[in-house]
Every structure is written in C-alpha cells, then in structure tokens.
Amino acid sequence: MMTDAWGTITAVDGQYAYLRMDESGCGRCRQQGGCGGNHLGPLWCGPPRTFRVLNPDHCDVGAHVQVTVAEGSLGRSALYAYTFPLLALFAGALSGSACGGEAGAIGGAMGGLLVGWLGLRRAQRQSQHDPRLQISIRS
C-alpha cells in the first residue's frame, strides 16, 4: 500500500518533473486513521513546496498527477527524525552528567543533539539513492 497525494507539474527538466503539492498533508485527512495534518499544515508551512521527481510517463507542465511514496517510509522517517536525536540528547546528557555534573549534562546534551543531527544528515544522504524511498508519479 502507498501513501498518495496530488500535485501539479510546474516544470519539466529532461527525465524529471517539478511538482507543486496541492495539499500539505498526505491526503488521508478525511479517511479513517488519518492524522488530520492537512488542517495543521498551513499553520507551519509557507507557500506550496515544489519537489523534483522522476517523470517516467513524460507528463507535461500543468498536468495534475498523483504522487506516491512507499507505505511506511513516512512513518519510519518520522520515527527516526524524532527518536534518534532525542536518544542522542539523553545519552549525551547522562554521560556528561557523570563526568561533569550539571554543566557536563548541559554540554553533553548539546553534543548529543549535534551527534543526532549529524546522524540524520548521514542517513538522509544515504537514503536519497534508494528507489524504494523516492517520491514517484503514479500513472
């Protein structure tokens, strides 16, 4: 099963298309089990975002297309984005506290957050080339 949303092609560059997403959520807001994020998206998100995705069907500019992401990839990404930095923060704070009291805990927590951020950046670079995790246009 896939997570779907709708977008409009704003430009075409060879085998890639630039998509402007029509919704800020995943498109499941009105369905059973949807999180309702589409209603909260405009509060935190600016103008619609544009993404560069493969265009295997060579759709033209202005085409309204369905965009899909593999089921579970969004949940896994959110889990990693929240838990990894939090665990790194706690580990840094605990180890810093053991070495240097309160000041060590603060420094360790900051170091842990830095390690968490660097780890997420590394994972993001590695996953960029995994075709199972890429946004695609569904024909």
Question: In words, what does this structure look like?
Answer:
Strands 3-2-1-4-5 form a five-stranded antiparallel β-sheet, with no helix packed on it. Helix content is 45%, strand content 24%. A hairpin with a 2-residue loop joins strand 1 (2-13) and strand 2. The chain has helices at 37-44, 73-127, and strands at residues 2-13, 16-21, 50-54, 64-70, 136-138. The longest helix has 55 residues, at 73-127. This is Sigma-E factor regulatory protein RseC. Keywords: Membrane, Transmembrane, Transmembrane helix. It comes from Candidatus Accumulibacter cognatus.
Radius of gyration, CA atoms, in whole angstroms: 19 Å
Number of helices: 2
Q: Give the CA-CA distance, first to last residue.
A: 15 Å
Number of separate structural domains:
2
What is the β-strand count? Answer: 5
- What string, H for helix and E for strand, traces the elements in order? EEHEEHE
Strand order of the largest sheet: 3-2-1-4-5
Global outline: elongated
Mean pLDDT: 80
Percent of residues in β-strands: 15-25%
Unreliably modeled segments? none
Describe the main β-sheet briefly.
5 strands, antiparallel
User: Considering DSSP H and I runs of 4 or more, what fraction of the residues is helical?
Assistant: 40-55%
Structural class, from secondary structure content?
Answer: alpha+beta
